[in-house]
Write a structure and sequence with these properties.
With 116 residues, the chain is an all-alpha fold. It has helices spanning 8-15, 20-36, 39-63, 67-70, 78-97, 103-115.
Length: 116
Amino acid sequence: MKIDGSINSMVDMATSQGNSIKTSSLKGNVDEAVKAKDDKALQEACKQFENYFIEQMMKEMRNTLSKDEEDALIPKGKGETMFTEMRDSQYSKEATENGGIGIAKMLYTQLKKSNS
């Protein structure tokens, strides 16, 4: 998979999910790290993007459940919905910190090559 230097294609995909402020911030972090040729900042920016990607993936997977399956026994309130979102965020953060699914490494490798 080829990724251009500014990761525009992945950012466009993430932005289409409706969270343009977060994706713009992530894109800015990557672009700044590439311009500064700062390896640690680039690695961190790639990890942040992977974290966001995993979080969005979990959210979309949860959205595939029908309302009947989700509320089978007890309907969810706003507090439980908020807890679920926070739990998914924490799970995605921990997954990324423990090696993730390889997106951060792939992005870092590709961006490092294109920056040389």
